[in-house]
Design a protein that fits this description.
The protein has 925 residues and is of the alpha+beta class. The protein contains 27 helices and 36 strands. It has 5 domains: 120 residues, no CATH class; 193 residues, von Willebrand factor, type A domain (Rossmann fold, 3-Layer(aba) Sandwich); 34 residues, no CATH class; 128 residues, Serine Threonine Protein Phosphatase 5, Tetratricopeptide repeat (Alpha Horseshoe); 351 residues, no CATH class. 38% of the residues lie in helices and 17% in strands. The strands form 10 sheets. It has a 7-stranded antiparallel sheet, with no helix packed on it. A 6-stranded mixed sheet has the order 6-5-4-7-8-15, with helices on both faces. A 5-stranded antiparallel sheet has the order 20-32-35-36-31. Helix 23 packs across helix 26 and helix 24 packs across helix 26. The relative contact order is 0.06.
Length: 925
């Protein structure tokens, strides 16, 4: 087909200048005639001014406009017709197959796997000069986009056209790519040396890829596979149409299904999901290795600039080349000279056109102007000569520190050479120095399209600098961290392209340190938890955890998602002791926990449970309890089989996905190997776990208060584990209400939990849990504090259980001699019905309990209360005897008993220094 094409069709837009020029000419000619008519009669105008002939003027105007039109057409580079020539050469026949499935949008190879695959294919074309190449894009199906050709420039244009959505049939079929290459080579070319290079992440969705590779090997084709991606994987960005719910590639302006306008992906940041769960695309190296091995080729992972050099040098270059039959190559002819010649002839005709009567000086001026126009039209077609002064000026402005002016000059140059990567880089650098970081980011992102990997590495480095500055401008810590994470990723890409770049490595370490410091300023759940740590954390109502159970009914009726256990306590701060922290071990990939190496004590929640923990909350992972197997989609994590908690190296900046199978509910936890020391006579330092769960790191007076309280709770009678905890919880509920507005006491000389315990102040969950643990330790029971999430609701749309930040919670775990028992002493919040309280909670009406049960009116059975400064005044009923009177009566009774036995009583002031009474609580272990 002899169709006209254009080298640079965008320059044809200059033709829109011709109609305004024609209108301007008509206006000027009419105005001249009108002015001349003011001096002579109209019929004398033609006689006196031959140059103003209407016919002549219109012919001259038409000639000039036609000349300009021809020159513009020549500038656009018209081509038609073909010239044919024969080519005879020895070369390899190489088919390049590029995976266009949706997973190639993942950014673990920045900026995306698809972009890096196309750049790698172009690098391979440069290395294989003289070889014949073909192009086969594939997804769910494959097709031959460009047959074997030695015209590398034409093939490069085809590579540029490859996009993720070029094939509407989704999925990944490596077999389809192999079979398409076999069909192209044909059975009659058995003596040719045929090569297939596959660029893919290897996520095969069809089962017959290996069989196709065996068939290809039998027909003499070698397959080399190039892995695009990382084994850790990355999320796949998508853009969902709000009209038809079709998935689109980010960057599209209209939906591929319904043509509706799409929103910008940067505002939605949406990722591919499968059945409501985010999909992380991982590099499937075993599959790609097997395909290559079956045909005598090899596999390599694409890591940077040297990958294609290594592939060609060690894979393609050693193969013997075949001599081809004479090949006829057709190329379109450049025809710009016809338009250029016509334009020049028309301009010369205008110069020779009779001018009539005109002064010689004016004639010379007109001829000079026409000559200048002709000279301008004969400048180089690519306008480089016009650009040089502007480029020099832009560089000068930048060197002089005039960065705003330099940015303007570079952007003006981009209107002449749009998309030029070096100009985009320079414009971004000028914008960065001018502190216009948004403009800098835009220019640097556009410059990433360069095939020059050296320039690409510099772009990544400067994008890291730009995002760091953008992060500094963010007011909210969470947004600042997210932008700085982008900065770190760009620095990592720069280091990946050039490992010797010391500046990039130094900046990467610096931004990581800044991210860590910023995280430490945020409210988080850590293993050093002050008394109000959870209460501050739960003031926000953001979603923190999503749980995807095997089915909705599998969610426990009272859902607790346990994160960590704190065994050490001192002065209002609970921590994980160093000895317990050392018991954790490093884990990578899937891991068989076997429920912490012991039989689970709690009920098994059968099946696979998946979790998504939102970023910047904690380095500890919420889990129901011990599990059979587990896997976290992170590089590494640690698991503590004693305390049964999983921990990341640091607080994550992105959402973390993990899964466990057959977890046990944490209502009852079997003891670990180290817990055996609690039931035998093994001697260990008190600071070593598990003896840290028995310590009371308090002043002597505070310990005495706790021991006296325990005796009064027992009513001087032996009671079992269950009764003791019921009475502790009932006492806490009778004397304290739940609130989130408790002010932490500022008296550093008094333990805040002990002070609160013997007051009537309201408190949040830490007060109740810490008080329960201290009373249990005073009674001789090992106890620790557990933290995590309690409660939540089912999200029918996402098909998952959702716990919010406001549902963070603390409770007690107490050892009964056999197992660790979960006990939640926190009462419901007023007006909320059943709230944070959990196991062990007494009935709503606890009055009339068993003998010895503490009661507000029980007198001696109630623990001694010492309302400190700022305590809430005790409310009294009409029939209630004030505590002071009760205490006075008790002291009088003791004095009378002592007098009967001729024993000298202790004074009232010495009551606080009584020796520790003997234990009267019977333990069942």
């Amino acid at each position: 087909m002899n169709t006209m094409t254009w080298t640079d069709p965008d320059r044809l837009w200059l033709l829109i200048l011709l109609p305004p020029l024609l209108g301007g000419f008509a206006f000027a000619w009419a105005r001249r005639r009108r002015l001349l008519g003011l001096f002579v009669s109209p019929h004398r105008v033609e006689e006196l001014a031959g140059s103003l002939s209407a016919k002549g003027q219109w012919l001259r105007a038409a000639g000039l406009l036609a000349a300009m039109g021809c020159l513009i057409a020549a500038l656009a580079g018209p081509r038609w017709g073909f010239r044919e020539f024969e080519s005879r050469a020895t070369s390899l026949d190489v088919v390049i197959a590029i995976d266009t499935s949706r997973s190639m949008l993942a950014s673990d190879l920045a900026p995306s796997r698809m972009v890096r695959a196309k750049l790698a294919a172009i690098d391979l074309l440069k290395l294989g000069e003289g070889d014949r190449f073909a192009l086969v894009p594939f997804a769910g199906v494959a097709f031959l986009q460009c047959p074997l050709t030695i015209d590398h420039e034409a093939l490069r244009q085809h590579v540029d056209l490859v996009q993720v959505d070029v094939i509407p049939h989704g999925g990944t079929s490596l077999a389809a790519a192999i079979n398409t290459a076999l069909e192209m080579f044909g059975e009659e070319e058995m003596d040719r040396h045929k090569v297939l290079v596959i660029f893919s992440d290897g996520e095969e969705h069809e089962p017959d890829a290996v069989a196709a590779a065996k068939l290809a090997g039998a027909q003499g084709m070698k397959i080399f596979t190039v892995g695009m991606g990382t084994p850790e994987g990355e999320l796949v960005p998508v853009l969902t149409c709000s009209s038809c719910d079709a998935l689109n590639v980010p960057g599209r302006s209209r939906c591929r299904e319904c043509e509706a306008y799409l929103t910008d992906w940067t505002t939605t940041r949406e990722y591919l999901k499968d059945d409501g769960r985010l999909v992380r695309s991982k590099l499937n190296e075993p599959m790609l290795q097997e395909l290559a091995t079956e045909t005598g080729g090899f596999y390599l992972r694409h890591t940077g600039t040297g990958s294609m050099d290594w592939l060609y040098k060690n894979g393609l270059a050693p193969l013997p080349k075949s001599e081809h039959n004479p090949t006829t190559v057709r190329r379109q002819k450049e025809q710009f000279q016809w338009f250029l010649g016509a334009g020049v002839l028309l301009l010369l005709g205008e110069l020779l056109w009779p001018k009539g009567r005109r002064p010689a000086s004016k004639t010379k001026t007109a001829n000079a102007a026409t000559a200048v126009m002709l000279a301008l039209c004969l400048l180089p077609l690519n306008a480089l000569a016009a650009e040089k002064p502007t480029l020099k000026k832009a560089r000068g402005e930048y060197a002089d520190g005039n960065f705003v002016e330099a940015q303007t000059e570079y952007e003006n140059l981009l209107t002449l050479r749009p998309g030029d990567p070096p100009l985009l880089f320079n414009a971004g650098a000028a914008a960065f120095q001018a502190e216009k970081y948004g403009d800098a980011e835009r220019h640097f992102q556009s410059a990433l399209r360069t095939p020059d990997l050296h320039l690409q590495q510099r772009v990544f480095y400067n994008l890291g600098n730009t995002h760091f500055r953008l992060g500094e401008l963010q007011a909210k810590p969470k947004e600042k961290i997210q932008v700085w994470e982008d900065s770190a990723r760009h620095y990592e890409a720069a280091v990946g392209l050039n490992a010797r770049d010391k500046a990039a490595r130094r900046n990467l370490a610096f931004v990581r340190r800044m991210i860590t410091e910023e995280k430490q300023r945020m409210e988080q759940l850590t293993d050093e938890l002050p008394l109000d740590g959870i209460n501050r954390f739960k003031q926000k109502d953001e979603i923190a955890l999503r749980v995807y159970p095997p089915d909705k009914e599998a969610i426990p009726e009272d859902a607790y998602w346990r994160m960590f256990a704190l065994d050490d306590y001192q002065n209002g701060v609970a921590t994980v002791s160093d000895s317990l922290r050392k018991l954790s071990t490093r884990r990578t990939g899937p891991w068989e926990s076997a429920h912490g190496g012991r039989a689970p004590a709690g009920p098994i929640l059968s099946g696979e449970w998946r979790f998504k923990f939102e970023p910047l909350f904690s380095e500890f992972l919420p889990i129901p309890g011990p599990f059979a197997t587990g896997e976290a989609k992170v590089k590494q994590w640690r698991y503590n089989r004693e305390a049964l908690h999983g921990r990341l190296p640091e607080v994550p900046s992105a959402a973390v996905e993990y899964r466990v199978t057959d977890p046990a509910d944490c209502i009852v936890l079997a003891p670990g190997p180290a817990d055996a020391a609690l039931t035998n006579s093994a001697a260990k330092p008190a600071s070593e776990y598990p003896f840290t769960t028995q310590q009371l790191r308090l002043k002597n007076s505070e310990r005495r208060q706790l021991h006296q309280a325990v005796e009064r709770l027992a009513n001087n009678e032996p009671i079992d584990f269950e009764t003791f905890n019921e009475r502790v919880i009932e006492f806490l509920h009778k004397n304290h209400k739940y609130t989130r507005e408790t002010r932490i006491p500022e008296d550093v000389d008094e333990d805040p939990v002990v002070r609160w315990l013997f007051s009537r102040e309201d408190g949040h969950c830490e007060y109740f849990a810490y008080s329960h643990v201290l009373l249990a330790r005073a009674a001789g029971y090992p106890a620790r504090i557990a933290c995590g999430f309690h409660g939540g609701k089912w999200d029918e749309k996402e098909k998952c259980w959702v716990s919010k930040q406001s549902e963070a919670h603390a409770w007690a775990e107490i050892f009964d001699g056999t197992n660790w028992i979960r006990l939640d002493p926190t009462p419901p919040e007023e007006g909320q019905g059943e709230g944070e309280g959990g196991e062990g909670e007494p009935p709503e009406n606890p009055e009339g309990g068993g003998e010895g049960e503490p009661n507000e009116n029980s007198g001696e059975g109630e623990p001694q209360e010492e309302p400190g400064e700022g305590g809430k005044p005790q409310e009294q009923k009409e029939s209630e005897v004030p505590f002071e009177i009760q205490e006075t009566l008790r002291q009088i009774k003791e004095m009378l008993e002592a007098m009967k036995g001729d024993e000298k009583p202790l004074g009232a002031g010495e009551l606080g220094r009584l020796p520790r009474p003997p234990r009267r609580i019977r333990k069942n272990w």
